[in-house]
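Researcher: I need the complex structure. Ligand is protoporphyrin IX containing FE. Inputs:
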Amino acid sequence: MRNENKIVRNRFSERACHWTLVVCFFMVAMSGLSWFFPSLSWLSSVFGTPQLARELHPFFGVAVFLLLVYLFVRFFHHNLFEKTDMLWFKNVKGVLMNEHGAKLRIGKYNAGQKILFWSIMALICALLITGLVAWRAYFSGYFPIPVVRFALLFHALAGVGLMLLIIGHIYLALWVKGSVSAMLTGYVSRAWAKQHHDRWYDEVSEDEKSLGVAPGDRK
Ligand code: HEM
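Model: Output:
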């Protein structure tokens, strides 16, 4: 479909990866939460039975890690901090008040999204390492019991941390109208790009001019 007013923000592979990640993450998070308090034990039915939840939680956890590795490879270069991010930090109040007067020279992701990106990546690494140490079926036998206990403690803390970050991520994604539909359809309007990610929009426009690509066709 060609649309002169739209530009590509997320490719199909990125969108498929992101939404598969969402499903896997919620299954892992719900089963994980079910072990925190007896009152939450019903959450383990997300996998059918509590026994299946115990069995499958680690496999889905590894899937979440691998899906995030793909998103890391695709997006990390857009999330490197740059001097212009200081402009976003200085104007964060205006950003939160939804004022779009000042040109903040924002690339594909703003400084807040970059912080979130690196925090998600750090926490998933912590969850993978501590999760492997505590994985009774395969690995925990190789470690002394106190190490496994510490791993479980840090695993739980990192899990809660990641869930809180994801709640924030969902809130912000819904707050910036047009970004969830970009994760569903792949496209944003030119007006959206100019308003929220002005430098990224300029870069995309430059590329279109120099490559002679029709608007809306740029991947
Ligand atoms: C219902 C749940 C979720 C919604 C609605 C959602 C929405 C979004 C949207 C709209 C974007 C694109 C932002 C933009 O283009 O500016 C995005 C990016 C992203 N999401 Fe989600 N997301 C959800 C859950 C998750 C989960 C569970 C994870 C990881 C565990 C995750 C990790 C990411 C990452 C890594 C990016 C790329 C951001 C970057 O590179 O800075 N998302 N999400």
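Model: Summary of the prediction. The radius of gyration is 20 Å.
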